[in-house]
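User: I'm curious whether this sequence folds into something compact or stays loose and floppy. Could you predict its structure so I can see for myself?
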Amino acid sequence: MCTLEKKGNIFYLTLTGEDEHRLDPVLIDSIRSLLSQVKSGASRGSVLITSGHGKFFSNGFDLKYAQAAGSVQGAKDRLHNMVEIFKPVVADLLSLPMPTIAVITGHAAAAGLLLAMSHDYILMRSDKGVLYMSELDIGMTLPDYFTAMFRSKLGNPSARRALLLRAAKVTGDEALGMGIVDSVHGSEEETREAAQRLGEGLAKKKWEGKVYAEIRKSLYPELCGVLGLKDTIVLPARL
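Assistant: Here's the prediction. I'll summarize afterward.
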């Protein structure tokens, strides 16, 4: 489902296997558990890089799991539960005491795109993969924290309209122009190498993680309010 490795100051969280990395309760719980390990093992200069194997970064919530409930109401209850238990994952990433990088080397859709956007930086390959918010196509409104994420992190109204009101499937080059991703690269290997370079550069800064997390939270007051994250004042140990 997912694995965690640490090399030097960099943590590598990887969604494993060749499937779509659908966010069912098992995978969501696994991601939360590994993020807890990352937080407990954090030190000055720590960085998190998250990526996925195969054709997908993540294709969103597991709708087949929801439908397997056997009734319309059961399916709705399962989908609602996934929405609720995924919210703390977003909160964990927004409050993680280190810089975070998402590496998109395949498709990232719906909650999968939100998972990527919960990171500080997004790097994407240009030759394969799209970003896609499927809610309009499947007839589902956006959870409040999804909406807050897009308002907080995507300042371009045209980009928000394309993703949310046109359900556009956005390529890497298009995503760069819209301001959704920070850089695009010609292949999976090049994308991962660029993330590695970025991670190593950030790790060299040796920033205090708690300070980094609090400054990050202060940038997104609406999103943090929806997620229930509160500000904490951190002062230097020595002045």
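Summary: The longest strand covers residues 2-7. The chain has one domain: 2-227.
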